[in-house]
Prior knowledge:
Elements: E1 4-9, H1 16-28, E2 31-37, H2 48-59, E3 65-70, H3 74-81, E4 85-89, H4 93-109, E5 114-118, H5 129-137, H6 148-158
Parallel strand pairs: 1-2, 1-4, 2-3, 4-5
Amino acid sequence: xxxxxxxxxxxxxxxxxxxxxxxxxxxxxxxxxxxxxxxxxxxxxxxxxxxxxxxxxxxxxxxxxxxxxxxxxxxxxxxxxxxxxxxxxxxxxxxxxxxxxxxxxxxxxxxxxxxxxxxxxxxxxxxxxxxxxxxxxxxxxxxxxxxxxxxxxxxxxxxxx
Length: 161
Protein backbone atom coordinates (compact mmCIF):
# COMPACT_ATOMS: atom_id res chain seq x y z
CA UNK A 1 0.00 0.00 0.00
CA UNK A 2 1.42 3.38 -1.08
CA UNK A 3 1.38 6.09 1.61
CA UNK A 4 1.78 9.76 0.77
CA UNK A 5 2.35 12.03 3.78
CA UNK A 6 2.26 15.81 4.02
CA UNK A 7 4.49 17.86 6.31
CA UNK A 8 2.85 21.31 6.38
CA UNK A 9 4.26 24.52 7.80
CA UNK A 10 5.28 28.07 7.16
CA UNK A 11 9.00 27.18 7.12
CA UNK A 12 9.98 30.85 7.56
CA UNK A 13 12.77 29.83 7.41
CA UNK A 14 13.37 26.10 7.24
CA UNK A 15 15.58 24.93 10.12
CA UNK A 16 17.71 21.86 10.68
CA UNK A 17 14.94 20.67 13.00
CA UNK A 18 12.54 20.68 10.04
CA UNK A 19 15.11 18.87 7.90
CA UNK A 20 15.54 16.23 10.62
CA UNK A 21 11.79 15.51 10.59
CA UNK A 22 11.66 15.48 6.78
CA UNK A 23 14.55 13.00 6.53
CA UNK A 24 13.03 10.67 9.12
CA UNK A 25 9.59 10.94 7.52
CA UNK A 26 11.10 10.03 4.16
CA UNK A 27 12.23 6.73 5.70
CA UNK A 28 8.74 6.01 7.05
CA UNK A 29 6.51 6.92 4.10
CA UNK A 30 6.59 6.18 0.37
CA UNK A 31 6.34 9.88 -0.47
CA UNK A 32 6.55 13.06 1.61
CA UNK A 33 5.19 16.35 0.35
CA UNK A 34 6.59 19.31 2.26
CA UNK A 35 3.77 21.84 2.02
CA UNK A 36 4.58 25.53 2.42
CA UNK A 37 1.59 27.40 3.81
CA UNK A 38 0.64 30.66 2.11
CA UNK A 39 -0.98 32.46 5.03
CA UNK A 40 -2.35 35.89 4.12
CA UNK A 41 -2.80 36.75 7.81
CA UNK A 42 0.94 36.63 8.51
CA UNK A 43 3.79 38.64 7.04
CA UNK A 44 6.64 36.18 6.59
CA UNK A 45 10.28 37.25 6.31
CA UNK A 46 10.62 35.19 3.12
CA UNK A 47 8.16 34.96 0.23
CA UNK A 48 6.34 31.72 -0.56
CA UNK A 49 8.67 31.18 -3.50
CA UNK A 50 11.81 31.80 -1.42
CA UNK A 51 10.66 29.37 1.28
CA UNK A 52 9.89 26.71 -1.33
CA UNK A 53 13.28 27.26 -3.00
CA UNK A 54 15.13 26.91 0.31
CA UNK A 55 13.26 23.69 1.05
CA UNK A 56 13.89 22.29 -2.42
CA UNK A 57 17.63 22.88 -2.00
CA UNK A 58 17.61 21.32 1.45
CA UNK A 59 15.78 18.13 0.38
CA UNK A 60 17.20 17.71 -3.14
CA UNK A 61 18.95 14.44 -2.22
CA UNK A 62 15.78 12.85 -0.84
CA UNK A 63 14.23 11.13 -3.85
CA UNK A 64 10.79 10.60 -2.31
CA UNK A 65 10.36 14.19 -1.04
CA UNK A 66 8.75 17.02 -3.00
CA UNK A 67 7.89 20.60 -2.10
CA UNK A 68 4.58 22.32 -2.83
CA UNK A 69 2.74 25.44 -1.68
CA UNK A 70 -0.87 25.67 -0.60
CA UNK A 71 -3.42 28.09 0.81
CA UNK A 72 -6.67 27.35 2.56
CA UNK A 73 -7.59 24.23 4.48
CA UNK A 74 -4.89 21.61 4.84
CA UNK A 75 -7.43 18.79 4.46
CA UNK A 76 -8.48 20.22 1.09
CA UNK A 77 -4.85 20.21 -0.07
CA UNK A 78 -4.40 16.66 1.21
CA UNK A 79 -7.50 15.50 -0.65
CA UNK A 80 -6.30 17.23 -3.81
CA UNK A 81 -2.93 15.43 -3.80
CA UNK A 82 -4.39 12.14 -2.51
CA UNK A 83 -2.36 12.02 0.70
CA UNK A 84 -3.49 10.22 3.85
CA UNK A 85 -1.08 11.33 6.58
CA UNK A 86 -0.22 14.66 8.18
CA UNK A 87 3.20 14.87 9.84
CA UNK A 88 3.59 17.28 12.74
CA UNK A 89 6.61 17.93 14.93
CA UNK A 90 6.20 18.34 18.66
CA UNK A 91 8.95 19.93 20.76
CA UNK A 92 7.14 20.60 24.04
CA UNK A 93 3.87 20.13 25.90
CA UNK A 94 2.66 23.49 24.58
CA UNK A 95 3.14 22.22 21.01
CA UNK A 96 1.18 19.07 21.86
CA UNK A 97 -1.85 20.98 23.14
CA UNK A 98 -2.07 23.07 19.96
CA UNK A 99 -1.29 20.17 17.62
CA UNK A 100 -3.85 17.92 19.31
CA UNK A 101 -6.59 20.50 18.65
CA UNK A 102 -5.52 20.79 15.02
CA UNK A 103 -5.34 17.00 14.57
CA UNK A 104 -8.82 16.51 16.01
CA UNK A 105 -10.26 19.28 13.83
CA UNK A 106 -8.56 17.83 10.73
CA UNK A 107 -10.01 14.42 11.61
CA UNK A 108 -13.46 15.97 11.91
CA UNK A 109 -13.06 17.66 8.52
CA UNK A 110 -11.72 14.50 6.87
CA UNK A 111 -11.99 11.16 8.65
CA UNK A 112 -9.64 9.52 6.14
CA UNK A 113 -6.62 11.59 7.23
CA UNK A 114 -4.36 10.53 10.11
CA UNK A 115 -1.94 12.80 11.97
CA UNK A 116 1.44 11.43 13.02
CA UNK A 117 3.33 13.32 15.73
CA UNK A 118 7.12 13.15 15.62
CA UNK A 119 9.63 14.32 18.17
CA UNK A 120 12.69 16.18 16.92
CA UNK A 121 16.18 14.91 17.53
CA UNK A 122 17.39 16.12 20.92
CA UNK A 123 19.81 18.55 19.26
CA UNK A 124 16.85 20.42 17.74
CA UNK A 125 14.27 20.14 20.53
CA UNK A 126 14.54 23.87 21.33
CA UNK A 127 14.80 25.12 17.76
CA UNK A 128 12.17 27.23 16.02
CA UNK A 129 12.07 29.48 12.97
CA UNK A 130 11.10 32.38 15.22
CA UNK A 131 14.20 31.93 17.40
CA UNK A 132 16.44 31.64 14.34
CA UNK A 133 15.09 34.91 12.93
CA UNK A 134 15.53 36.68 16.27
CA UNK A 135 19.13 35.49 16.63
CA UNK A 136 19.97 36.44 13.03
CA UNK A 137 18.34 39.88 13.40
CA UNK A 138 20.46 40.56 16.49
CA UNK A 139 23.67 39.47 14.74
CA UNK A 140 24.09 36.13 16.52
CA UNK A 141 25.44 32.98 14.91
CA UNK A 142 22.89 30.63 13.39
CA UNK A 143 25.52 28.23 12.05
CA UNK A 144 24.34 24.66 12.53
CA UNK A 145 20.73 25.72 13.12
CA UNK A 146 19.76 26.08 9.45
CA UNK A 147 21.08 24.80 6.11
CA UNK A 148 23.96 26.89 4.66
CA UNK A 149 21.76 28.35 1.91
CA UNK A 150 19.27 29.57 4.52
CA UNK A 151 22.05 31.04 6.64
CA UNK A 152 23.24 33.07 3.64
CA UNK A 153 19.73 34.25 2.81
CA UNK A 154 19.13 35.31 6.41
CA UNK A 155 22.42 37.19 6.31
CA UNK A 156 21.17 39.02 3.23
CA UNK A 157 17.86 39.88 4.90
CA UNK A 158 19.61 41.27 7.98
CA UNK A 159 22.77 42.44 6.15
CA UNK A 160 25.03 40.15 8.15
CA UNK A 161 28.42 39.18 6.73
